[in-house]
Amino acid sequence: MPKEPFNFPKADILVIDDTPENLNLLSAMLTEQGYKVRSVTKGSTGLRGANAVPPDLILLDVNMPEMNGYEVCQHLKASDRTREIPVIFISALGDVLDKVKAFAVGGVDYITKPFQLEEVLARIENHLTIWKLQQQLQAQNERLQQEIRDRAKAEEKFTKVFRSSPNPIAIATISEARFIDVNPSFLKMSGYCLEEVIGNTVAELNLGKEAVAIAQTIQLLSDTGPLYNQEFELSTKSGEVKTILLSIELIDLSGVQCALLIANDITERKRLENEFISLVSHELRTPLTSTMGALDLLGAGQLGTLTEQGQKVLSIATTNTERLIRLINDILDLERMKSVKIFMQKVKCNAADLLIMATETMQAMADKLQVKLIVHPLAIELWADPDRLLQTLTNLISNAIKFSEPGDTVWVSATLAEHKGVELRENDRSSTQSTLLPGFLLITIRDEGRGIPKDKLQIIFERFQQVDASDSRNKGGTGLGLAICRNIVQQHNGKIWVESILGEGSTFYVLLPLAAF
Ligand code: ADP
To answer: Transmembrane segments in this chain: where (predicted)?
Structure first.
């Protein structure tokens, strides 16, 4: 008979039979088929062998002196080491096989003489397959159990981190900006209890004038990407205003798109910083203004004619003084904007006018640096502070020109960006009415300049953050422009972000709601 390939190579079969002819026959037959066969003539020897090296299957004679097959099987099933091994009983010609007993003591099958080779092999292979599958199932089960234990441990770890984090953390749905979980630090900072927070939207919780902006940021998260360390003011339940740095990241919780909000309460730090900044700025502005006046006098030649070398030194002093004044003005600007005293003067204005005005203002700079400026305006009305938006656009265009090479192009364009699927519900949550958010204006300022490294894309919107420490020296900037832009855009309930490929260019995006809400 041809030797068939066996699925489980090296299957080890122990044959226990006191009749040498049987043993020889089975042994030869199985070896021929590629099995590894061990044969013994006594039950006790078989038990020892099975215990020493458990086989994959045992063929066990029923009738044996000393210890019969049933007893051997009982011993096998009593030991942890051999319990799982499938046992097939063999009954010789004329033996009385008690089938019920064979199964009762743990046998899986029986073979009666005369052996029919195909039948014996089929039964052996069946039981080996079943046994292997059982083993696999058991291993899989153990792996799953371990996985469940590991997951439970990880979950416990993360729950503990969430609960005991000193940073306020909240989870809200993206669709409605509705709180689904917050940690104790969040409750401590906001003054609300858990029941007052869960189920409410960010806008409903009365977190102050910037709550709508936060809700907006959450709802636009899938479009505009995560937010890192943006400054917001938050009112607590008792009405106290806190300054927080807020990071928002998109997470998927069992198929539900959620926002993970991590806050950092910087109220005290901010107060000290503000005090320090206004003190230093005011103290510096007065002497600097008078220095500038003195330099102007020198430059005008009213105090005598300067040598060529003197003119050069004076020009350096003037450039640097101008830069310092710009820096201080930017700092004061930013602080003034942040303090509640100055509000945006929002009026109806036309996006096309703003874009054209901004590019016209920057045209001279573009010409000087041999950068081509192309504008694609969009005539659409929006509710905004035109001066502040102009300031934002000129700053972005100036940066785009500044970080381009001669011969490069800067494109300024605007398109309508209807934001699908974002809904603001009425305050009354039982109401089925929902108001669609207004459309958005998306302004893009694209350049072919040096680009911005990936790890700086977020941070450049923070104060004094520059890609290169020498940027302020070489390019005359202050590192405050983008912080001011972000602030202005934020006060319009909009969003500003940048995409860039190093060495290929950057695109700054300003997304603004068309109508006030
Ligand atoms: P600055 O006054 O230095 O321009 P900004 O806040 O406007 O300050 O910009 C911060 C930094 O971001 C810049 O110093 C520069 O490193 C980087 N940056 C801004 N715009 C661009 C741009 N279009 N291309 C490359 N880098 C830019």
So the answer is: none
